[in-house]
Write a structure and sequence with these properties.
Length: 184
């Protein structure tokens, strides 16, 4: 007779080889960080600002993404380095992203089916391919003197790195970000 270890309902995940960018993996979530990159962004919502920003190439800060129960969350980092549990996080400077928790309003985003290390690039592509249409919540997304539109207009089609000095404090470290949503 072969003995098997008990498995708690809903806690089994397939074995994965985790890439270096994965920070946390649980049965319900995956958290990873992304180095600064350049991505085209799409803006909708019918405003003049959205029309001026739409379809242009932008530099982005280093980011921390979390998928928990098929919901996407995102935060920014001040420095381009793998964060640790105590690393302070910044508010991600994106419309459709609720500043207090970093929850992304899915809107036009095509949600990947998997929550796994091999689906990370799909989640990032889905985020940047969606249409950014509206601010979410009352948290200030940037400290840029010309506000949200001024920040992104200053970065449109430029080769410069994202100016992380304009990121606002999320009042959360990586450990707190990881734990938010896990307790539900």
């Amino acid at each position: 007779m072969q003995l098997r270890a008990p498995i708690a309902l809903g806690s089994k995940i397939a074995p994965e080889i985790l890439p270096d960018d994965v920070l946390v993996r649980t049965p319900d979530s995956i958290v990873w960080w992304a180095a600064p990159q350049r991505q085209v962004m799409f803006f909708g919502g019918g405003t003049e600002d959205a029309a001026r920003l739409n379809g242009r190439l932008y530099p982005h800060p280093p980011l921390v993404f979390k998928v928990c129960r098929h919901e996407l969350f995102v935060r920014a980092l001040e420095h381009d380095a793998r964060p640790n549990a105590n690393t302070p996080l910044k508010t991600a400077p994106y419309w459709n992203t609720e500043g207090s928790r970093g929850l992304v309003c899915a809107g036009t985003m095509r949600i990947p089916q998997e929550v796994a290390a091999n689906s990370i690039s799909e989640w990032v592509t889905a985020f940047f391919s969606s249409s950014f249409t509206h601010p979410s919540g009352a948290v200030r997304l940037t400290s840029h003197p010309e506000g949200f539109a001024g920040l992104w207009l200053s970065l449109a089609d430029c080769e410069a790195r994202f100016p992380t000095e304009f990121l606002t404090d999320a009042r959360q470290n990586l450990r707190q970000f990881v734990d938010t949503g896990e307790e539900q």
